[in-house]
Amino acid sequence: MSSLHAPIAAVTVYRSGALVARSSVIADAGACPEEVVIDDLPLSLEDRSLRARIEGGEGLVAIDVALSVALAAVDPSLPPAESEALRAARRRVLGIEEKMKGRLRQAQRLEVELVAARPEGRRGAAPPPAPYTGREAMAAARGAALAAIDQDLEGIRRALREAKEALSAEIERDRAASSARQARSHELRKRATIRLRGQAGQSGPRTLVLEYMVPGARWSPAYTVMFDRAMAAATVSVRAAVAQRSGEDWRGVRLTLSTADAQRWTELPELHSLRIGRRQASPARKGWRAPPEGAAGLYADFDKFAGGAPPPAEPEPLHLEEDESLSLAEELAADDDGDGASAVDEGGARWPEPERAKRAAAPMSYAMAPPSSSRPQPASRGFGGAPPPAMAPMEMPPGAPLASKSMMARSRAAPPRGGAIGQGGSMMKERREEAPAMEAEEPGELLAYGDLRMPGVSASRRGELSRVSELERLRELAAKASPERLRAVSGAISAAMSAAGSAGRALPARYSAVATVGGFDYVYAAEGAVEVLADGEFHSIPLFSRAGGAELVYVAVPREGSEVFREVRLKNPIDAPLLAGPADIYVSGDYLMTCDLPLAPAGGELRLGLGVEQAVKVARNSRFSEESAGLMGGSLVLRHQIVVEVQNRLDRPISIELRERLPTLREGEDEIQIERGPIEPPWEAYEPEEYALRGGYRWSARLAPAGAQTFKASYAIKISAKRELVGGNRREG
């Protein structure tokens, strides 16, 4: 067995969580050992997601990968577990507190009443005088000493308050820093052991890739759009805010961002045939088949040669709740028996102080990841399942039931069953008395492949697949570990998972959570190596830049106001959608504003509003007249004329769009007629995609520098003379 150094090479951040890929070069496939070890994996690693593969040629394959818990190795490249400033601040607080305790003990001793005893007189004689002078001197000395102590205590309290404030500031500074730190001598890390199999005659270098999921990582898109002075060309720079607190920094990695949910159960669609004829009942689905019965008969020969002795009774199970962990106070209280010093880490794991070398040489293995397979493993309670290496739709496992979603939900919610480890190390579960074991098994439980175990031949439930709980998985390869130690390890792992899951919980202002776009997911890859610290804060990471053409159009709605708005229209320059997010706008290198970028599909047009242009003026005037029409004056005609004048006071030509609206008729208004008059210049119908608009029109024109143009439109509304216009703007009809 040899140890490999496998730095992080690539990271894929999903909607929630990240897939981390470590790589290590094996110099010669022919001389590779059968087992290799990769140490110092984070405790937040999701066990079922662990995968190993060999790249770079044939002749060497990874056949198995197992996880274990071991003491962390020393990495000189990482910063210390605590900064020197934090340790100095703690020492200062402890020193001042000890000084205060000493002065308080002095004051307590002085508070004891000091009285000079009256001398004893002779029998029958008058008592001697009391020593008032000595008592007054002692009282004066005690008062002076207490006054001096009070004065010292006032200064000590002030110094202690300042020291605690400095310590709080250092703790906050240390908390905000990266969580990738040098491990303490008693801290735990996860270890991966990979079994390899080579072929004779194969040589040359190979690359071992180890992949695993970490929870809590998140990302959100942002943009920078830079225009030239004429706003005829634009460069769109895509960046992302990424946060993670996995316990390891991502330095110099290839970063890929995905909108997919990495651990979502997806069922493949089923295409039904269309037939002409009498309706028939749908055939029974065969997607799920219960485990075969009679598996216990496979052990008949074993029982025959073993003397026909029945399987031994199961030992009394040791019940350990998964959420049970030892706190720091409980660990310290458990060590009061005086059997030696102990070390307690941040996650609650307590290790006795005997030689660290012995503990490192015999790590406590707690989980066995299944071998690499193309079948995805459904997520279950505690840790989630792993996605396939490529972001293709996840396949339904063979034999999956139709209602697998509900079954998986019941599987997650099911409480853990108690278990015990037999003498041979086999995992056994409590017997169910209500129904046979095969009938009691839920299909959802049997889909959690990474949690299924087959008891040994001496177990009463041999021949049956049983699902184990998280804590039982912890105990599988640590049968000799005490319950206290198991609970401490479970507490350390739970603390690491909780810390990793809290990364980036609140998005920065104006940022939006990523989501699936129209039922499809997309990938955004950074063009260069990036760095994301494990401090739980969002870091702005540049991804790539693309250039494209742009068009500046001035838009006005004279009917509503005289403001003229600048609107830039540019085509999405990338082959994927531009997700919603904040965009910083620059014109010729100068910052202009920050706006919210809407979702723009691939190849679609993007419109950005850049505020009001004061140098373009618009004025709208309307004229109204009424006249009788028809035989005997039986109808009334309301004539309207609209005149819009536009002036361009800029030193460059502009494109302007004027939006207008004419009255429309509701269904059933047959007695009203609308006649449109001459339009100069001609306009076109305007139907916006964002909302429904009836009767909309627009003029589009090009104005020269310092140029002007007039736009005219007229229409008439013919109504019965018995009617009249009530309310509203009479001049607008």
Describe this protein with a few key phrases.
single chain; 733 residues; alpha+beta; ten-stranded mixed β-sheet; six-stranded mixed β-sheet
Task: Please estimate the helix content.
Answer: 10-25%
Termini separation (Å)?
90 Å
Structural class by sheet pairing and helices: alpha+beta
- How would you characterize the largest beta sheet? 10 strands, mixed
Total beta-strand segments: 31
Average pLDDT, rounded to a whole number, is: 75
- Beta content comes to 25-35%
Low-confidence stretches: 313-441
Bulk shape = extended
Number of helices: 10
Indicate the radius of gyration in whole angstroms.
40 Å
Describe the protein.
The protein is an alpha+beta fold and 733 residues long. Helices cover 18% and strands 33% of the residues. Among the domains are: 77 residues; 36 residues, no CATH class; 117 residues. Strands 9, 10, 20, 21, 22, 23, 24, 27, 29 and 30 form a 10-stranded mixed beta sheet that branches. Helix 1 packs antiparallel against helix 2. The chain is extended, with a radius of gyration of 40 Å. The termini are far apart.
Short structural summary:
By secondary structure, this protein is α+β, with helices and mostly antiparallel strands.
Topology diagram in text:
Elements: E1 2-3, E2 8-13, E3 18-26, E4 35-41, E5 46-55, E6 60-71, H1 84-111, H2 132-176, E7 188-198, E8 206-214, E9 218-227, E10 233-243, E11 250-258, H3 300-305, H4 328-334, E12 342-344, E13 350-352, H5 356-361, E14 364-367, H6 404-413, E15 419-421, E16 427-429, H7 437-440, H8 443-446, E17 452-453, E18 466-467, H9 470-475, H10 483-501, E19 523-532, E20 539-556, E21 564-571, E22 581-587, E23 590-597, E24 605-612, E25 616-629, E26 635-648, E27 654-661, E28 673-680, E29 684-685, E30 696-703, E31 708-720
Helix pairs in contact: 1-2
